[in-house]
Design goal:
2 copies of one chain form a homodimer. Chain A is of the alpha/beta class and about 475 residues long. The first copy, chain A, folds into 3 domains: about 200 residues, FAD/NAD(P)-binding domain; about 110 residues, FAD/NAD(P)-binding domain; about 110 residues, FAD/NAD-linked reductase, C-terminal dimerisation domain (Enolase-like, domain 1). Helix content of chain A is about 30%, strand content about 25%. The longest helix of chain A has 24 residues. Chain A is globular, with a radius of gyration of 25 Å. The N and C termini of chain A lie far apart (about 70 Å).
Chain lengths: ~475, ~475
C-alpha cells in the first residue's frame, strides 16, 4: 500500500464512513484506519439495538390497555428476555452488515489498528508511518464509567455490553437519566424487570423545560422509581450492589451505567498538532468546517465532544470529507437543532432551548395531551408540549415536549423552524382529523392568543376574488 | 323566539357548529336548526368511533409480531367483540358530549326539526316560518345504500348502524373499498372476523397512484380477500347474503355498505333559491366563499358534495360563518389538499394527485419501506412512498403513499407543499435517526438524482465564513 496519501481517515464509524463517501468521489489515495469492532456505534451498540429493545418492550407494555380495548388474555402474556436480547442481536447483526461490508470492500485501504498522530500530516499505525495531505479524525466515543466501578465486573453494564447479555438480572439500577438512561430504563421496566433510575441532573432525558420535565417525571414514575437531582454512589454488599443518592437507597443485582459518553482521544497524539487542548484533551474545532484551527486536520463526530447524535455526526463526517478534498475550505450552516428520545411518550427538543431564549422576548403556547381526541382513542393521551415564539412577530423559536408521536411532531416543528416560519404560517397548513398534530395546533393557537396580531382566520384571504366554482 | 334573524344555520354538525362559532361573535340574532341526532357525523358515526375500533383492532393484531419480539402467549389472546363495540360507544359518548352541550347551551336558539327553504331569506321549520338575512346550509350527508338492499334488514350495516351493534356476525362483506370501507374492513379482519372486501374502482382508499395502490393491495390481501375493479351484487340466499362481482362469489352473514356518502339535500327546498341545480340536486358553490351564486345563502360541509373530510368541513363552516356576518364577501384560499386513511400502513395523498400533474413536467422519487431501518426495528417495514416534484425546479408538487406513520409523513409533506418548498429545502431540515422520516428522505434523494441541479450537500454553505468555534 502507498504510504503517501491524499486523505487518511481515522475511525470507520458513522462520521468516518460519511467522510469516506465524499473522499472516494475525488481520490483513490486514501485509507481508513479503525481500532476495535467495526460496524458504527449507532448500529452496533446505540440507536438501532436500543430501538429494537424498545419496540419489544412497548409491544409487551401495550397489554395494559388490552382490557380497556376489549382484548382478553393480556395477563397471561410473558416475556422471554433471553429471546428478546437474541432478537436485538439478530437485528443488530443485519444493521452492522452494511458498514462492515463497506470497509471490507476497501481491501488494503482499510487498516485495522490503533492510530497515533505524529503531527498534522503523519500517523503511526501497526508500526508503520503513513503521511497524508489531510487527516480526518473520527474516533468516536465510549461510555463513561467511573474507574472504581470496574470492581462490579459483569454486574456493571453499559450500552457496550448490555445487548451482548444472554440474560439480565431481575433488579437493575440505571445510573444516569439522560436520553440513553431513560430509554433503557423504561424499556427494561416495561419488559417486567424491577428497575430504579438515578439521575444526577434535575432534568430528565435532556429536557430544559420545567413543566415538560415535571410531566415526564410523573409519567415515568408510574412505571418505575426515578430519582433525579443527586449523584448516585455504588457499594458492593453481600446481597448485591447498594445504590444510594443519600436519600433513596436500593440494593440491586445489576447496574447499568448511562452517564454519558467520552471522546476516544486518549493516546491519539492530538498534542502533536501544536494547538491548545482543553482539560478533556480536545482541540477547538469549527463546527461549520470541522477543521482544527487552520490545520489540514478535521475532527468529526462523537470524537470532538460536541453533539453525540447520529444525524449530526453524519453531517460532520460529510463536512470533513468534503473539506478534506476541497481546494478551499467550505463553511456549512449546521441544521436546526433536533433531539428526540424514544421513550413513551417521546421526548423532543427542537430549535432553541428555553435556556437560550431571552426572557421577555418570547411567548409560550402549551397543550396537554390528556385532552387530545386521537390520543384518547389510542389510549395514549399523555404528555405536554410547549412551543415558543417571538412575542411580536410570532416567529417560531423552539419547542420541548413529551408527547405521543412526539418524534413526528418534532420533525414538523423542525421544518417550520428551519424555514423561519411564524405560528401563523404553520397554522395555515392542513391538520387532518383525527391526528395528534391537532394537539400541536392547539398549542399554536394558545400562542396566537398571546400575540398582538389576531387574524380572524388561520386561512389566508385570496389576493383577488377568484370565481372558482364547483364543477 | 324572534323569527327575524341575522343568520340562520341549518345543521348542527361540524360545519354548522364551525359557522356558529364565527356568527355568535357578531350577533345574538341567530338560530341553529338540526334534524336527527345531535353530535356531528365525525364524533358520532365517523372519524372518532372508527379510530377507536381501529386502535383496538391494531392492538390485537400486534400479537402476530409477539413471537419475533420474544413475547410468549400471543396465541392465547382473544377479543371480545361486544366489549370492543361497547368501548367504542363509551368513547363516542364522550366525544359527542361537547357538541351536544354546545347546542343545548343555546336554549331556544337551538331548534330541533326539519328545515325547508322557502327562498333565500325564508325557512319553514316545525310549521313556523323564520326569516334571516343570511342562511347557512350545513345539513351534512348520509351513507349511500342502494334502495333494494333494504330487504337485508339488520344484516345490512352502514357506519350509521355499525357502532350501535351489540355483536357482529362472523362472516362479513364490506362493499366499497374507499377510505371508510378499507378502514372498517381491515379493522374487523384484525379483530378476527372473516372479512371480504369488494371495490368497484381499481384504486383502493382514494389512491390514484398505480404503484402505491398495487403495494397496498398486496399488503391488504395478506389480511383478507380484497376484490377491486368490479361492482358487487347482493342476493338473499338460504345461508345468508350472497355477494358476487361476477368473478368472486362469497356467502356472508352480514354486509357493510361503504359506497360513499350522499348530501342531505332532499326536501330541503334548494329549488326555491332560483339557481340551477345539478342532477344530484346541488347548486354551484364557490369553495372560496361557500356562497351559492350571489345569494345570501351558503352551503358548507358534506352537504355541498365537495370533500367529506372533517378539516375541510370545519374550514367551510368557518368560511360560511365569517361571510354570513361580513359586510362584504371574503374570499379565502383553501388549504393544500390532504387525505389520510387510517389503515395500516396508513394511506396518504398530499398536494396534487398524479392525475392532476401534466406528464413530462415532473419527476417522481420513490422509497420502499421494507428497507427502512426504524420500521424494521418496529417490525412495521411495509409500504411505498412516491413524491412528485417539478422536473426543473424541484418544487414539491404532491405525494402518495402507503407507509408506516404515513399520517405523520403526510403532514410534513403538506407543510412543505403549503410553503411551496423544493426538494432541496426539505432535505435541508434535520432528519433524526432512527425515524421513518428517513424513508421519506430517501425518496427525496431519489428525486434529486433525477433533477438537473445536484448540489454536493443537503446543507447550505454559509454566506460568509463565520469563525464560530467550539467553546
Amino acid at each position: 500500500m502507498d504510504t503517501k496519501l491524499d486523505v487518511l481517515i481515522i475511525g470507520a464509524g458513522s462520521a468516518g464512513l460519511a467522510a469516506l463517501r465524499e473522499v472516494r468521489k475525488h481520490t483513490k489515495r486514501f485509507a481508513v484506519i479503525n481500532h476495535g469492532p467495526y460496524g458504527t456505534t449507532c448500529a452496533r451498540v446505540g440507536c438501532m439495538p436500543s430501538k429494537s429493545l424498545i419496540e419489544a418492550a412497548n409491544a409487551f407494555h401495550r397489554r395494559q390497555s388490552f382490557a380497556e380495548f376489549g382484548i382478553n388474555g393480556g395477563d397471561s402474556l410473558s416475556v422471554d428476555i433471553p429471546k428478546v436480547l437474541r432478537g436485538v442481536r439478530d437485528l443488530r447483526d443485519r444493521f452492522i452488515a452494511g458498514p462492515i461490508k463497506f470497509t471490507e470492500d476497501l481491501g488494503p485501504r482499510s487498516i485495522a489498528g490503533k492510530a497515533r498522530l505524529l503531527g498534522p500530516h503523519h500517523v503511526l499505525v501497526n508500526g508503520q508511518e503513513l503521511t497524508a495531505d489531510k487527516i480526518i479524525v473520527a474516533t468516536g466515543s465510549r461510555p463513561i464509567v467511573p474507574a472504581t466501578w470496574t470492581e462490579f465486573g459483569d454486574r456493571l453494564l453499559t450500552t457496550d455490553t448490555l445487548f451482548e447479555q444472554e440474560r439480565l438480572y431481575e433488579r437493575i439500577a440505571v445510573i444516569g437519566m439522560g436520553a440513553i438512561g431513560v430509554e433503557i430504563a423504561q424499556a427494561l421496566a416495561r419488559l417486567g424487570l424491577e428497575v430504579v433510575g438515578y439521575g444526577q441532573d434535575d432534568f430528565l432525558a435532556g429536557l430544559t423545560n420545567e413543566a415538560v420535565n415535571r410531566t415526564f417525571h410523573e409519567l415515568l414514575q408510574k412505571e418505575f422509581p426515578v430519582y433525579p437531582g443527586a449523584p448516585a454512589e455504588l457499594r458492593q454488599t453481600a446481597d448485591g450492589i447498594e445504590v444510594t443518592n443519600g436519600t433513596h437507597t436500593v440494593v440491586v443485582e445489576q447496574v447499568i451505567a448511562a452517564l454519558g459518553r467520552r471522546p476516544n482521544v486518549d493516546d491519539l497524539g492530538l498534542e502533536t498538532l501544536g494547538v491548545e487542548l482543553d482539560d478533556q484533551g480536545l482541540p477547538k474545532v469549527n463546527p461549520q468546517t470541522m477543521q482544527i484551527g487552520d490545520l489540514p486536520v478535521f475532527l468529526a463526530g462523537d470524537a470532538n465532544g460536541r453533539v453525540a447524535l447520529l444525524h449530526e455526526t453524519a453531517d460532520e463526517g460529510h463536512i470533513a470529507g468534503l473539506n478534506a478534498v476541497a481546494g478551499k475550505i467550505i463553511c456549512f450552516k449546521r441544521r436546526t437543532p433536533l433531539m428526540v428520545v424514544f421513550s413513551d411518550p417521546n421526548i423532543a427538543v427542537v430549535g432553541k432551548r428555553l435556556s437560550e431564549l431571552i426572557p421577555g422576548t418570547f411567548v409560550t403556547g402549551a397543550f396537554d395531551f390528556r385532552r387530545q381526541g386521537r390520543a384518547r382513542a389510542a389510549l395514549r393521551n399523555k404528555g405536554l408540549v410547549h412551543v415558543h415564539a417571538d412575542k411580536q412577530s410570532g416567529l417560531l423559536l423552539g419547542a420541548e415536549m413529551c408527547a405521543p408521536a412526539g418524534e413526528h411532531l418534532a420533525h414538523l416543528l423542525a421544518l417550520a423552524i428551519d424555514r423561519s416560519l411564524t405560528v401563523y404560517d404553520l397554522l395555515h397548513m392542513p391538520f387532518y382529523h383525527p391526528v395528534v398534530e391537532e394537539g400541536l395546533r392547539s398549542a399554536l393557537r394558545d400562542l396566537t392568543a398571546q400575540l398582538p396580531e389576531k387574524p380572524a382566520s388561520d386561512l389566508s384571504s385570496c389576493a383577488a376574488f377568484q370565481a372558482e366554482a364547483l364543477d
